[in-house]
Design brief:
By secondary structure, the protein is α/β, with parallel strands linked by helices. The protein is built from 19 helices and 16 strands. The strands form 5 sheets. It has a 5-stranded mixed beta sheet, with helices on both faces. Strands 10-7-11-6-12 form a 5-stranded mixed beta sheet, with helices on both faces.
């Protein structure tokens, strides 16, 4: 009797094990390539990649991933194009710029948006003091936000008249930071400069000289006086506060509420050759984004992981300053900002065509796209680069597996509704890019070229 029961129990355990294993493997894709290397830059918004690796989401999708920090955005892009990296944490403008031939030309796509918001504009202590002299509202203990560049206008004029224009840093010519900095300056009437066929620096007709500086080097470059301000992602604005060398004056959440920030980029060739691998990547990244936004406790755990030298490598306190629901402007002026870093809420991970179109409008506005284009062209480029079809397939699998709710997948044709959530209240409709450009006094629009090649 005992032996028979023991035999029956053994068969039952084997059956349960088989059922459990089959269930666990049900959502596993037959990936074409399981050993992968992804690149990233030392910024807090590389978090979805880091969390997908550290919490085992990649492995659960049958992927064995190595993450490798890159020296700058150009090297990162070049290594993806050359196949040394299978994919990477990228600036939203990089896949778009590469695909239409701004700088390096290659067809790069993105099936996953990594986050919303997360950037700031910081000025040196000296420039902040001068801004306060020219704008009385900034002299309050807690100045009203958003802070415009109005107080910077006299400073810019004075320095330009002296033959020493204000110098500001951003991370890459097609970066969100470049366009946000230019948007903020132009909204106050400051000419940020133009790209032309003969000027790849974007400083033609400029009131302010904007140049490239790698993100981790921003605080040191500011401290040395090489630049007097910069636009960058975290933790490098909060680092300036911690070191007492600068003041973040505005965040990109205040310039454009819930704006798209980074994306995960791959070559179109990789996606075509490894479709199942690509879907598995996206599944893992969606899960990581959801985990990051699930609780404050998860954010604190993420901060500790990101602080490791192989990832962001900044002090935990500095990373936590913007990753746990607050943002500190002038030292001691810490404010609640729960949506400063968003990794899943507000459909943050979905690659909307309208996001791509906005970046294209800025490329046209500042001369990186040299000629007028019809609205249909903007839509066509957006559809070549942004791949919500891949995202939806991956998300649907996660819904069937119980990792997502159906409501987590937006009902959309790829375009968000028009929005006026900008610092200057100008309404953006992704379906009407030329109409949008026509609303600005500063910048190229239609057939009008503000700056012409010499």
């Amino acid at each position: 009797m005992f032996r028979r029961n023991r035999k029956t129990l053994g068969l039952l355990l084997i059956t349960l094990l088989l059922i459990t294993t089959t269930s666990a493997q049900a959502g596993l894709l037959d990936v074409e390539k399981d050993e992968l290397k992804f690149g990233f830059i030392k910024l807090t918004d590389c978090a979805p990649l880091v969390i997908a690796k550290e919490l085992g989401f990649f492995e659960e999708e049958g992927l064995f991933v190595t993450l490798e920090a890159q020296a700058n955005w150009k090297i990162l892009l070049d290594r993806v194009i050359d196949g040394e990296l299978d994919g990477a944490h990228m600036l939203s403008g990089q896949p778009i710029g590469a695909t239409i031939g701004i700088g390096t030309e290659a067809h790069i796509v993105t099936p996953f948006s990594m986050d919303l918001n997360g950037n700031g504009i910081t000025v040196s202590n000296d420039i902040w003091a001068q801004m306060k002299l020219h704008d009385a509202s900034l002299q309050a203990e807690r100045p009203p936000h958003p802070i415009t560049a109005k107080g910077l206008v006299p400073v810019v004029r004075e320095q330009k008249d002296l033959g020493d224009p204000l110098r500001m840093g951003m991370v890459f010519p097609v970066s969100t930071h470049n366009y946000e900095l230019r948007y903020w300056l132009a909204a106050a009437g400051i000419e940020p400069g133009y790209y032309t066929a003969n000027d790849t620096t974007g400083t033609t007709n400029a009131d302010v000289l904007i140049s490239v500086t790698p993100p981790p080097q921003m605080p040191a470059t500011l401290d040395q006086g090489t630049i007097q301000g910069y636009a960058v992602g975290e933790p490098w604005n909060q680092q300036a506060v911690a070191r007492g060398i600068g003041v973040p004056v505005v965040t990109n959440y205040e310039i454009w509420k819930n704006n798209p920030e980074k994306v995960f980029g791959l070559t179109s060739e990789f996606v075509e050759k490894h479709p199942q691998t690509t879907r598995a990547m996206v599944k893992a990244l969606i899960r990581a984004g959801k985990w990051l936004d699930a609780s404050l406790d998860n954010r604190r755990k993420a901060v500790a992981i990101l602080a490791r030298p192989e990832y962001v490598g900044a002090d935990e306190d500095v990373i936590a300053a913007s990753m746990t629901g607050t943002f500190e402007f002038e030292r001691g002026d810490k404010r609640e900002m729960p949506d400063f870093n968003v990794f899943f809420r507000h459909h943050a991970t979905y690659p909307f065509y309208s996001d791509a179109v906005w970046f294209l409008t800025q490329m046209r506005r500042w001369g990186q796209i040299g000629e007028e284009k019809p609205d249909a062209w903007y839509d066509e480029v957006a559809r070549r680069v942004y791949r919500p079809d891949i995202y939806r397939e991956a998300a649907q699998m996660l819904i069937e597996e119980g990792h997502l709710a159906a409501s987590d997948l937006p009902e959309t044709d790829g375009y968000k509704p028009p929005t006026g959530d900008f610092i200057d209240k100008v309404v953006y409709d992704g379906r009407k890019p030329n109409e949008y450009l026509s609303k600005f006094e500063i910048g190229n629009q239609g057939s009008r070229k503000v700056a012409k090649a010499n």
